[in-house]
Amino acid sequence: MILIVILIALSLDFFLGGLERFRNFNWCISLYYGLEKRLSQYKFWDGTFGLLIVLSVALSGLIIVLCLACSLPWFVEIVVSLIVLIYCLAPEDLDNRLDEYITAVDEDNAGAVTELAEGLTDETLLSENDSNEIAIIKSSLVESHKRTFGVIFWFLILGAVGALLYRLVNEINDEFSDVRSGLADSNSILMNILEWPSSRLMVLGLALGGHLVDAMPGWSKAEHLSIEVNNEVLTDAGLGALQYRSDIVVPDREKSYWVDELKSLLNRTLIIWLAILGIMTLSGTLG
Question: Half-sphere exposure of 25 toward its Cβ, with a 13 Å CA cutoff?
Fold first, then answer.
């Protein structure tokens, strides 16, 4: 049943499109500031305990709904879980932006290429000498994990509560990425903990969907037995799985060749994940 919910959520997001406008998490940030006004004078607020209060209050509504659903017909809980998963997933927008970038590059639309590249690039992930192409590849690998793979992983582990927890932690981290505080640091640590297992599983999917021999050394090179290198593991292993070479000679190669290959690799990785989940479901390992 879990796999069916995931497949329905991904299908609805793909076929309906335009669901990004419904994925608004401003309420969580407003909740934080509302609680801060009332609790900022207490020493425990700016730290782990304060973060736990924010997340507990934010998740309490969903937990109550799920508890009530247990006393209703069986499909009610499934519908609630499906709605929450669709709300927390966000694969379609990244796919569309990559398509728009590929089209702009192939049409030599310099203005659109620059604008789309800026939207696709996360400056915090880049090295000094990274080209626009590498920047987009690295950023898309990390964003795909945050928007899809991480959410699915925690949905499998903790259900709808896990999916929403992961998404809220990411939203809080984005909001306070430039802020130094005890609560922001605690949230960053929690995010790294949540992303450690899902990022490694995504790397395995990338290796199976791409070039295994080059992906695994990329993982080993970036891995330092630390929870703080999740993004580096993803980008290094992803570039290896893609066998990225800026100077490679490909017959009839289009200008957008590597970004197009990246999009295909991410889609293959998702299909591999779903296939493995299907096998686990048929074997009775996954409910």
Answer: 24
